[in-house]
Amino acid sequence: MQSEHMSVWGLVSEASLVVQLVMVILVLASIASWYLIIQRGAALRRSERLLKTFLQRFRSGAELTQLYREDGDQPLPREAALQHIFLAGYQAFSQLQRQPGIAPDAVIEGVERSLYVAISEQEERLEGGLQFLATVGSVSPYIGLFGTVWGIMNSFLGLSMVQQATLSTVAPGIAEALIATAIGLFAAIPAVMAYNRFSARGQTLSARYYSFANELQARLHRRLHAGSPSVAAAA
Q: MotA/TolQ/ExbB proton channel domain: which residues (predicted)?
């Protein structure tokens, strides 16, 4: 019976209600963060794969009008960020080209604004879930520490009611209190590591979005000033 009581499950079941509530909150936070880590990791891998695939098509010398028709005629996944940015920029280019008497510089400025709006939307999608991971990583240790302090406080209050305090009397209360800190660290460490990793990958993707936007603007600028008949046809 004593060994069962000193097991982890025994200590958790014998903990006070407040400490048990703290443990439940931390376990739920850990489960939610792990779900988000798996989900965001898969989404980022798919985003990186789709980005590389589209860049190969874009830089292979394919006609922009053809790319626009191919990607615009089918539903795109949310992770296809570069294609969404391309469609937004080229659509603005086509619409502005139809306006009579518009200056070429005004066309490029309109395309630039559309690209920045599309990039901002994709950056917002990249940041989804990071706030939760940051919250779990920063708050969980303190929640666990609160459970530990509360448990140790109850242990010392219990010791004041006995005439002789021994290690066997003190150990269970302190051990069950320290479990709360351990669970808090278990929830916080993966969340912090995932947050740092996802933030770095998101910044890399964001930089590539801006680089692609500049590349697209350069190609549209050349087509616009070339004055070729294909530009009017594309519009």
A: 84-208
